[in-house]
Amino acid sequence: MPTALLSESAPAESPPARTGRAAFRTDIQALRAVAVSLVVLNHLWPARLTGGYVGVDVFFVISGYLITSHLNKELSATGRLRLASFYARRVRRLLPAAFLVLAAASAAVMIWLPFSRWPATAQEIVATAMYGENWVLAAKSVDYSASTQSATVAQHYWSLSVEEQFYLLWPLLLLGLFLLARRLKRSRELVLGLGIGALCILSLIVSVLMTEFAHNQAYFATPVRAWEFGAGALIAVAGPRLSFGRAAANAASLFGLALILLCGLLFTEQTDFPGVAALLPVLGTALVIASGGGGPLVHDKVTALGPVQYLGNISYSVYLWHWPLIVVAPFVLDRQLSSVDKLAIVLVAVALAAVTKVFVEDRGQKARILALSNRRSFLAMAAGIAVIGCIAAGQTWAWGVQNAAAEGAIVAAERSPCRGPRAMEPGAHCPGRFGPATVPVMTEANQYWNVAPECGAALTALMAGGTKTHVSCDFSSGRPNPKVVWLVGDSHAQQWQGAIFALARERHWLVKTAMLGGCPVADVRFIGYEGKTDPAQARRCMDWSAAVAGAVAKDRPAAVFSSAFARDEKVDDGSGVPERQQFGEGFQRTWKKWTDTGAKVYVLADPPLNAGVRAADCVSLNEADPAQCAVPRAVAQPQDPLTMAARSARNPGVSLIDLTDHFCDRRDCYAVIGGVVVYFDTNHLNDEFSALLGPILGRSVPTAGSLGLQPFTDHPCLPPGSGHQVST
Prior knowledge:
Layout: H1 26-44, H2 55-78, H3 83-112, H4 118-129, H5 133-141, H6 144-147, H7 158-184, H8 188-213, H9 215-218, H10 222-238, H11 246-266, H12 279-291, H13 300-303, H14 306-313, H15 315-333, H16 339-366, H17 368-371, H18 374-413, E1 470-474, E2 484-489, H19 491-494, H20 497-507, E3 510-515, E4 526-529, E5 532-533, H21 535-555, E6 559-563, E7 569-571, H22 579-595, E8 600-604, H23 618-621, E9 631-632, H24 633-636, H25 641-648, E10 654-658, E11 668-669, E12 672-673, E13 676-677, H26 687-692, H27 694-698, E14 725-727
């Protein structure tokens, strides 16, 4: 899970202690150090510190406590809030360092990263500058094609966006509650406490529900996180009434620190978070803050040490710098990061943060030219946003130039007899077939979800929630009574569009598609994919799958092509039957529904894996010798419930088309073949490679009659009678 650092780390803004202790809270500064350490280590070693993302929750609680303490103090002293001054201070505190890192990271992307990464970077730096990065990521989290994109250098700013939204609204809420208390002639602390408490309860309910039913969006949504700020705010409001004896304070603070660290160690990506699980790191942080301020505590011997305090002091800049370094470093070094490289990133991030703290953060806060008037601070903010916007516009323009040149190179090379999978044909004499790609970077033309010019607009039939999934493509060139062919399934069916469209153009078919990312078309009880479970999404998938199966059967097509990423999709009907068997029986029931109408069903075996078997940026980091990205065939093409179901089908209308030999030789599977990058992203085929497979796939689909089956031939690697198999 991506995480980010919150920004209330200036010592000058720490609230005064309640009794007997210096105004500066070393325990809060230590909490910042712990939180940023959790986040950074989680990003660098995610398999070891699996729950380090809870660091962001620690910062949310700290921010809620500090900001509410300052605002409550001003309300108590003056009966009003100087909102313009408050917002201007936030601008001077946060934006100079944030804009500097954004500009530097964007320049690094232009210099070192493939141009295919530029548009997403441009979009997200603009979203960050406008305090909306969390909502962009929430939208991407439910966009299946966007969810497979690589992280940008700006992704970690999402929580800064959440915090700024909190800063925008929180003073208004406190002022409203203060005026309500005055009108009702009630205690200010009582009304503030009740109002904030009610908001916390409501937000926590939203957090639990969204985590259960809309997990992907929940992580980034501001209403889901509001209660965490509120928890800190409640401590600030109740501060004068909180009283801990020394023994109780020591026990509470130590327990709180332990709780935070245990969450960092024990939580994983599979933890339903934030939701109920977020109560633990929030409670731990609240205990540390509430028990501090009353005198020296046992943990001060460690937490008050100079290095710990210094790390807390520069924690904002450490976080701003560390993530762009992680993203860019592999391309600078031209290799995957080693443990030594990761340690170096930590040191460089700390060094850059130290310089940024002194020369940017501190000077930005104290700059007289800005501090003389709030208007100047806001004008400086507007100027900074304009600069970031110009950088993003320039990045997008440069991408367009590079993209056009790359697409031209692809067109020029497409007729080569050794292009792409043609290089794997029996008898082909193609030297260097696993050598460098003509264009190693993906362009818009390579997107696996591209539709052909012959396709109409997406249709409202077969909707999945608010998503249109159905398209009709007429390749008949005006011929009467064209054969109707369907392509259905999840995104691993969609990646075959290039091949099906190429074949349809040759044979003048009418192609109808129905595809929904992460959702197999099978009569199964679907529960999730990629380790994610979402009951609402699962129900949407099953309803859509049933609707597609029925629509195809009603249409009585000549043929149905189908595929699915069954290796990474989960089904469970509660019967205890092995998952592979449930999948197999579910696929076969659906296929029978189609073959009973006279259709021929062609099951497209899933290509060899890419994600999980090779590094995501392997081709980019090995442009000169992409054969370094080769993976043993047995590893890249493990058993698949989809192909097992097709092979075991006793239905003469079902055939398996397995093109693995055009991705792999006898020993290895490759990421670049015949000068073409095989995969568009970590999970799907490059549309160019897919289209080049069209004629090859066509050998498995007869041209005469009604698209009938080819004569059955036993595969040499399978037992006789194991099903209809066409392997080319």
